[in-house]
Amino acid sequence: MKVLVIGSGGREHALVWKLACSGKVGKVYAAPGNGGTAAEDKCENLVMNGIDPASEEGQKMLFEFAQKENIDLTVVGPEAPLDAGIADKFRTAGLAIVGPGKSAALLESSKVYSKSFMEKYGVRAAGSKNFTDLSRALEHTKKHFGKDPTKPLVIKADGLAAGKGVVITANAGEAMQTIRAFMKDKLLGEAGKKVIIEDYLAGVEISVMAAVSVSPGKKGVIKPFIAARDHKRLLDGDMGPNTGGMGAIAPVPDFSPALEKDFHDSILFPTLKGMEKEKMDYRGFIFFGLMVQDNRTFLLEYNVRLGDPEAQALLPLMDSDLADLCTAILNGKLSDYTIKWKEGAVCAPVIAAGGYPGTYRKGDPIAINPTGLNSTGAIIFAAGASRGSGGVEGSGLRTNGGRVLAVSGYGLDAEDARKRAYKAINCISFDDMQYRADIGLPSGGNSD
Ligand code: AMP
Ligand code: GLY
Fold it and tell me: What pTM value is reported for the model?
């Protein structure tokens, strides 16, 4: 099989690596990929010259490439190309692509749409109200804090905002400032034209990803993966600013069988019913961002893709052949397909560039001690890392982004996995690198 993976982050490197593990896959193209995918067995990066895969030009380029090269399977990593309709474009021409079409991608790209979907189909979530009118939103906020000044409010921009569209506000002043910034000052452009004002949920977060095969007029299937947990704060003990994710673990020890059942009953099944009723064509992956409060699961968000860095923890745990799973999703055979998992656990801390999530340098050489690394069995998934065409010392990799690498340690249990991951980190160095030391510790906390 010839496979195309769209995207350039750590999640995409993990997808490329896992697909290349399949005996059925002869070649993987990463578009545009990164310094890690370039060195992966069977893989070649597609030169896109900075053209965004989500742009018209990028979609056309990928579509023509897939047709010309007779690509058997395309897997879309990030949400932006899905929101731009790349899956519809490929499917209409009979090309096999994993990822929902534009209208189903609204589950992630419009928070107003996803909240109304949750409400319509009884998916358990925080109470919320939508606003398109600034003065009404401000009035609602004043009323809320007038009634109970101790209860925070969550202000959410409707559209895709690269992680900047959700603000937890502790008082009326903060809330109103955020609403004005989104709706009046257009801080997030069109994404903040509509806002959602949501009740605050206090608890711990869990990420459940799943394979989805829903086609109009047919009985659909959602098969959940093992649960994972991201750690969004920069510093140990869940302190410091929010980031794109500083590390992930899988499985999640506190996701008890009772919580899992609660998630199935209150979130997964109502979602599946809603997808069927809405006659969605959703063949791809879904991400349920959960908050556990008072022993009950609440849905914070849907993402229409795998999580990053959750995928870097989860894919090394998957025992099934990912190319087979993708084929089952696309051919309506998911209900007969058993997703197999290895025993044990993965701990995947992220190494970031100094200064991230603020400004940081690019271009620093990354040194890796291969003998030390091999002894841990850990896998390095590159994100913001590029590969020079010769003349680059050490590993051949250079820093090229904020989150540079994820180091996925697999072990027989969580502690073994954690030790292997951090032993592997000791084999990697670049100037000013930073990472959390508590990913996978029982006290390692949760993203909040
Ligand atoms: P979202 O994009 O909706 O998942 O929000 C991003 C992050 O904001 C989540 O991962 C949570 O950490 C936080 N968050 C979102 N909604 C709420 C809520 N209702 N209560 C508490 N925290 C929230
Ligand atoms: N780790 C959360 C996400 O991928 O959205």
Answer: 0.95
Best mutation site among 209, 293, 300 for ligand 1, i.e. most ligand atoms within 8 A of its Cβ?
Answer: 300
Average pLDDT over residues 67-81: 98
The residue written with tokens 């982050």 in the block is 9
Angle, helices 172-183/134-147, rounded to nearest 10 degrees: 170
- The alpha carbon of residue 334 and the mean position of all alpha carbons in its chain are separated, in whole angstroms, by 22
Determine the distance separating the centroid of ligand 2 and the alpha carbon of 147, expressed in angstroms. 34
How is 360-425 classified by DSSP, letter by letter?
-----EEEE-HHHHHHHT-EEEESSEEE-SS---TTSEEE-SSEEEEEEEEESSHHHHHHHHHHHH
b (16+ CB within 10 A) / e for 82-107: bbbbbbbbbbeeebbbbbbbeebbbb
Is 411's C-beta closer than 6 angstroms to any atom of ligand 2?
no
User: What's the 283 CA to ligand 1 centre distance in angstroms?
Assistant: 26
Chain centroid to CA 331: how far?
24
| CA torsion angle 360 301 158 270 (round to 10) | 160
Instruction: Look at residues 22, 27, 23 and name the one whose alpha carbon lies nearest to residue 46.
Output: 27
DSSP state of 268: I
- Residue matched to tokens 């809405």: 278
The pLDDT of residue 394 is 60
The model's pLDDT over 134-151, given as tens digits with 9 standing for 90+, comes to 999 999 999 999 999 999
- 375-401 burial code (b ≥16 CB/10 A, e <16): ebebbbbbbbbbbeeeebeebbbbbbb
User: Which ligand number lies closest to the CA of residue 109?
Assistant: 1
Instruction: Tell me how far apart the 2 most distant CA atoms of the chain are, in Å.
Output: 65
Residue 371 has a CB neighbour count (10 Å cut-off) of 7
Q: Is the pLDDT of residue 370 over 50?
A: yes
Q: Is 176 left (phi over 0), alpha (psi -120 to 50) or beta?
A: alpha
